[in-house]
Specification:
mainly alpha, 124 residues
């Protein structure tokens, strides 16, 4: 079976959490760090929902996507695309480069790999 409802359910839960963070929290640790930590987990779950690939490969793809978006922030991608005033684009693509965000992405992927490793060992 290609579609994995467990991963998709996790994606939806994390999406709701991310929307709440983006909508209701404007500053602080949860907005600037926990949200970035969770977003890579959310993207990982979305990827694993529809594509049957090994966890490590999915983790690398997720980390590359997140890092690519962050690099886009460094190069003012929103301005280049004429989307600086678009609220949805600002939420999805972000608007300010941060080395801390890169660290949060890495920590999120490490958490994913720990959970996947424990899950695989439990199933074996």
């Amino acid at each position: 079976m290609l579609f994995k409802p467990g991963y998709f359910k996790a994606f939806l839960i994390l999406l709701i959490i991310e929307i709440c963070i983006a909508t209701f929290i404007t500053t602080g640790f949860i907005r600037h760090t926990a949200g970035d930590f969770l977003v890579v987990i959310m993207l990982y779950c979305l990827l694993k929902s529809f594509i049957n690939i090994k966890p490590l490969f999915a983790a690398w793809i997720t980390l590359l996507i997140a890092t690519g978006i962050e690099v886009g922030q460094f190069f003012d991608l929103l301005d280049e695309l004429g989307l600086r005033e678009n609220r949805l684009a600002n939420i999805i693509l972000g608007n300010a480069f941060s080395y801390g965000d890169l660290l949060a992405y890495l920590m999120g992927i490490i958490a994913v790999m720990i959970v996947e490793h424990r899950r695989e060992n439990r199933l074996a």
